[in-house]
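Margin note: ligand = beta-L-arabinofuranose.
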Amino acid sequence: MRNLTLIAAAFLLAACAQPQVEGEAVLTGTNPIITGQFTADPTARVFEGKIYMYPSHDIPSVITHTDGSAWFSMPDYHVFSSEDLTLWTDHGVILRQEDVPWGKPDAYAMWAPDCVYKDGKYYFYFPDAPAEGFGFGIGVAVADRPSGPFTPQPEPIKGVFGIDPCVLVDDDGTSYIYWSGMGLSGCRLKDNMLELDGTPVRLDEPLPAGFKEGPFAFKYNGKYYLTYPWVRENTETLAYAVSDSPLGPFEYKGLIMKESPTGCWTNHHSLVEYKGEWYLFYHHNDYSPSFDKNRSARIDRVFFNEDGTIQEVIPTLRGVGPVKASSQVHIDRYSSIDGAYIEYVDTSDLFKGWKTVFAKAGDSVRFDDLDFGKKAPKKVVFRAKSPDGCKVTVTAGERAEFVIPSSLEWTEFTLPMPFRVRNIQNLEVELLSEGTLEVDWIKFI
Ligand code: FUB
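Resulting structure:
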């Protein structure tokens, strides 16, 4: 019964979701970073001075697991790019399951991918279920541009059985592929990037038990880092290990992220340096709270200590992107919250996002690093509803009180700003009076 409910909810979500089309832009800056579709297993790479994100693409479940439960359904891949981690361009579908010559065209098994650049070409590595046989193979599709078009090779990589490929191109151009499937394996790639060069090495054996999938490898200050989902107790944490050599042995160093507090079982990730800062791309089932196989990409900052260890990343809703006060500021993606709570705006279409509910005097939220620009806004717009009307304070450098008139429907209330605010400020909104206030977004114009 639970499965039927899940599948029904998933179909409803699919029916309501606005499919995004090639070239369409998504403006967030907060987590999750892409709205309107699911984006799991995000691998982020810097190409041509931009961040490119290669996620896998969950859809509401159309296939079932061997135990009959709704299962991962992943028919194709999109690629997204951004210059500022706030405005994301969806370049559309770069590979479909039907286009993989060796793949089963209705397996919905396009799991976590990676993409790297070498000698003028972009190599996109992806798992898929083979048309003949069982399990997973790993294919390569090649392009001249990071957004494709990608041409899949006729056969999967020989000698690789498993999922979640990650490729590290070392400083001298030597490349290594890592994947999971009966443990974590790694192997040098030939210069053509399409074939193994040698025998795969097991890399998980010296690590604490619990490695599952999703390895990611990168180099930092001359050391090789292997980061990976690790089931220490119930669901996947993110852990890391370090080595002097790309094929280990790797020494376990610690956790990067704890288990999902709400039980999303997987947490696939990648780390990337962009414009001098390090970021963790990971996923969570933000738009699908009751089915954790419909996930969405998130980003948070990563900090290295001087000795090369990685500080634990605490997942945020605020995310990392710059947000302009003149855009719709979704304060439900708060930096901190006190008393107020968050609900979906429309439970029949979760991609419409969230609202902040202030139910009693003193409830507040803070949204950090809001960019008011050089020219102080003259008005504030609240998209809100408040059955009895209420009074709120807005603090951004200075503090002012606003009266929100009574409204049972979503209404855009435009009110004059009594003070001038410029540049980057933390915004705090607090309910001052009795009465309920729901806020979809606020903007300053
Ligand atoms: O997305 C399907 C699978 O779930 C991935 O390949 C794993 O890493 C996990 O995220």
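The helical segments are 2-16.
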